Amino acid sequence: MTDTTALAADRPPVSIITGYLGSGKTTLLNSLLRDPGMARAAVIINEFGEVALDHLLVATPNENTVLLANGCLCCTIRGDLVGTLAGLLAQRGAGGVPAFDRVLVETTGLADPVPVLRTLASDPAIAPLMRPGAVITMVDAVNGERQLHDCPESVKQAAVADCLVVSKTDIATPTAVARLRMRLASMNPGAQVLEVIGGAIAPGALFGSTLLDPAAEREAVERWLNEQAYTGVESPRAAGRHGDDIRAFAVRHEDPVTDAGLAAWLNLMATLKGARLLRVKGIVNVAGRPVVVHIVQSVIHEPVTLDSWPSADRGTRIVFITRGMARSEIESTLPALGLDAGGRAAGTAIDPAAYARFVRAAAGFRAPDRRLERRR
């Protein structure tokens, strides 16, 4: 794991700016692009004509890439994201565009950010050269609570965010802002929540909410996990609103786990539980080593082995944001973390005892869907 994650730190991060219609994504993007610290950024947007960046335009290297006054690149999506990212990398390698050290992807207001994350984590043409950055979700303080009530897209965008940016706080009532922040905290308690007026915010406040550096400082690791925010928040509300089946909680596992067990658990979680996993992140004790794990639905990010433990706590700590999954259902999967390779050499027959342990552990991933039972 260490060799792979060391390479991850050298790849430019691709951060996603998402949020429901009218939440202020373009305003935020305009503000960011004025900051000198963003001079080596590439920006990908869906439709260039919808984004008011005319004051920043300088030249057009080709039909869908524009150089901005501060040195940034702005690129429209023509086709799919893979083709756009691959095109940017090819142009950079050939000297057709300036070098860039990060990419920002602004989605449409109705977009699900998970397919973008899946592309970054698993596409063979992109994953070796770029890495997932922060997911930044804009939420409108005036209309956000109603949108979370009525629109499933806004719920998904908020639940998978690393950072929630509440906009239009200058024209919303203090009561509305407080209610919205409480709602967001119940859905995604571990996310950083910031308030902005006119999109004005320092880039460092947005893009420091992911953890990919094995040498990250202890405070950064604990801030990223933010386990204490998940204490006592698992309390689904009455039915009838989008997001009312969102649950957030933390689980612990005290014994060290095996490399094989962690790999099996991650893959079984993503494969069999992924549809109801909105966000999973944690620090896992793998044979004494602190390993950071991160899942978004069926997307497994590269595990990162930290250089040192962030605290005296050596237990495995994992936080979850799920759709309709209770803590007990997750806890039933934890025995898979103790699986081993069966003590057999590569290429030999399957060890019956090891296979039996796998079957018992995997049974925890096939707990019945209580929602389906209630419908019968």
Explain the layout of strands and helices:
Layout: H1 2-8, E1 13-19, H2 25-33, E2 41-45, E3 57-62, E4 65-68, E5 73-76, H3 81-93, E6 102-106, H4 114-122, E7 131-140, H5 144-150, H6 152-159, E8 163-167, H7 174-187, E9 192-195, H8 203-207, H9 218-225, E10 246-253, H10 259-273, E11 277-286, E12 289-296, E13 299-300, E14 304-305, E15 316-323, H11 327-331, H12 352-363, H13 370-375
Parallel strand pairs: 1-6, 1-7, 2-5, 2-6, 7-8, 8-9
Antiparallel strand pairs: 3-4, 4-5, 10-15, 11-12, 11-15, 12-13, 12-14
Helix pairs in contact: 5-6
Care to describe what's here?
This protein is an alpha/beta fold. The protein is 31% helix and 23% strand. The N terminus and C terminus are likely disordered.
Helix run count: 13
Q: Tally of extended strands?
A: 15
Low-confidence stretches: 1-6, 48-52, 54-61, 343-350, 370-376
Calculate the mean pLDDT score and round it: 80
The largest beta-sheet arranges its strands as 3-4-5-2-6-1-7-8-9
The major sheet is characterized as: 9 strands, mixed
Give the overall shape, derived from the CA principal axes.
Answer: globular
Tell me the radius of gyration. Answer: 22 Å
Q: Estimate the helix proportion, in percent.
A: 25-40%
Secondary structure category: alpha/beta
Strand content: 15-25%
Distance between the termini: 45 Å
Order of H and E elements = HEHEEEEHEHEHHEHEHHEHEEEEEHHH
